[in-house]
Amino acid sequence: MSRLVIVSNRLPVTAVKKEGKFQLEASAGGLATGLRSVSRAKDSLWVGWCGVARERLKGHEDEIDVMLKAVKCRGVRLTRHDVEYYYHGFSNKTIWPLFHYFPIYTVYDRHFWDAYKRVNMEFCDEVVKVAEKGDTIWIHDYQLMLLPRMLRDRLPDATIGFFLHIPFVSSEVFRLLPWRQEILEGILGADLIGFHTYDYVRHFSESVLRVCGYEHNFGYVSVGNRTVRVDAFPMGIDYKHYSAAGERPGVQEQMGRIRKRIGDRKLILGIDRLDYTKGIPERLEAFDLFLERNQEYRDKVTLVMVAVPSRTGVEHYRMLKRRVDELVGRINGKYGSIDWIPVWYMYRAVPFDKLIALYKLSDVALVTPLRDGMNLIAKEFVTSKADGRGVLILSEMAGAAKELGEAIIVNPNNQEEIVSAMEQALSMPEEEQIERNRVMQHRLARYSIGGWVGDFMDRLESVKRLQAERGISRLTAHVESRIVKDYKAGVKRLILLDYDGTLVPFTSWPKRAQPDQRVSSLLGRLARNRKNEVVIVSGRDRETLERWLGPLGVGLVAEHGVWVREPKGDWEAMEILKDDWKTQIRPLLELYVDRTPGSFIEEKSFSLAWHYRKADPGWGSTRARELRDDLENLVANLNIGVLEGSKVIEVKDSGINKGRALSGWLARGPWDFILAIGDDWTDEDMFEALPDTAYSIRVGLSATRARYNVESHEEVRSLLAKLKG
Ligand code: GDG
Fold first, then answer.
1. What letter does residue 560 receive in the DSSP assignment?
2. How far is the CA of 303 from the centre of ligand 1 (A)?
């Protein structure tokens, strides 16, 4: 296993000065908490900032370095100016608001940008100093979006992953950014780019297309001759840690204290960093309306609001703090009594045991951010509910909503909806609460933090493999003349051609794509040559192929290999096999059901089908492609095949694919010359089945197993026209 180098703005530890001496304390936040366990377990190094400006570290640098080294960390030194311009400036006043759909709060300042570039370069220098051959470098979050490209320039072969923890905005908002192209190019230096949800992946891919002009295809972006993978990895939590945390003695003690304070009232919980993206005032207003409408709940429920101080020097945050203070005061004044404070407001971070105690005691968690990349609080709350009781109300604007569909999902801007969600939550029967939570817990347990990291690492490894296998290599004039020469020299030649997209362009009305005069005469001429065997390998049905191409004397493969027909012969179906492979395939399909909300498995007597019609449209297709790849590895020794239909991937009892359909022809070798041309992924099976000596060409500049790429069917025709003699 290679060494993992994690790079993030903040280290998992923060230097704190106590009585003139520095010491390290655990950093707060989802990223630090989540990855800490991983970095402990692996051979790893974490590069980042320790939270104290260079000026304040003076004289203690070596001492801090030694302490950091002991916990497998390496510090990047930031000056006060860096912290002000790069961190509080560009990161938190430009990117943070813009990426959370607050363009009105977004500051565009050239000096911030300059500092951002400079500090990213400092991170780069630091990583280059420590990076060793074979390391996997994993860069995190919006403070370091230029770093992947900077590293790629210095370490061209490095394995680099990038994960964005905040949302990626729609391209319409993203394009407001003056430095949009540099940011995208910066991120694209990575081999694998991860986001929490498919929506963010889609927004990113669209921005890349619009701003940089790079096409994306099933989650792959071609950047020059490099293939970059973009994908969704919904971050999990340390499930075991949170589900067992209730047993800690400290938690029991805290529960006792909280109970004493709120009595037997129902508890509604809100925990956030005090940030304008979290929808805190909106939530308070909704609680106000709830109490106004539901008199019977007065004195029967307490809203516990933990607001962790954040970015206190920034004006928008100060304004927010004032507004929240006012709202809490107003609600408590309006409804409160000597015995009952409706909102118990804590403007501070609470210790871990108290956090868990709050999760455990809460009847309802109100997680209603206006925007949130993921939101781990929601996941932690559900996980902590060992007895299954408690209701999560979750904003549809949080990434977590994509996975926690059994929560009560609300639009955080819709007060009415939040009020009725609170009513529903407080009166929800216990069995229903348990039923909903158990489903979510099951999912969270399956895809916990370890699964998230493992999944990301596996993908990263596979994209590196793919890059090695599937570079794009344009068919040059030199190669073309070699093909023509080898063709001429051969006396036993096999020519395998896909039809749509390869010989004829796609039409919006497929029935109109019948061969034109030029294709017919090209194919006819090649097929008449007795040294040649020409086979059209298509996804089309038998009848159409036979009608259009049969008379030309070519062999035919229909429906991606279900049927084959020798020139002038009859159609023959591929053989039928058994179904005992299902137990091996089903767990993989189940994993994809977990990772792709809305998808499901259908079991038929001789096949298993994974349907994704109800999943997010663009990304259902991406997962489908990926599932195919995974299945291909798995089925290699099982003699079964994988087919893709309309929004469904089907695993069948026979290895039906274009490659297998050609096995008869290929077995009739040795051939002096083989040429195979196709334009989509179904043709990849054909390319894979060929011997190394064959010439294979993919139409379109996508990564491929084929040896060469051409741009269009016109180039195919021109090449075929040169094959004479
Ligand atoms: C980014 C994205 C994304 C919070 N208050 C206290 C406390 N916490 C802990 C929670 C949780 C973490 O901090 C906060 O989780 P978030 O999900 O809000 O993460 P952030 O780090 O703020 O933000 C976010 C996340 O990255 C991960 O990718 O989900 O969308 O903005 O673990 O438990 N812990 C303690 N006391 C508190 O008062 N002890």
1. G
2. 20
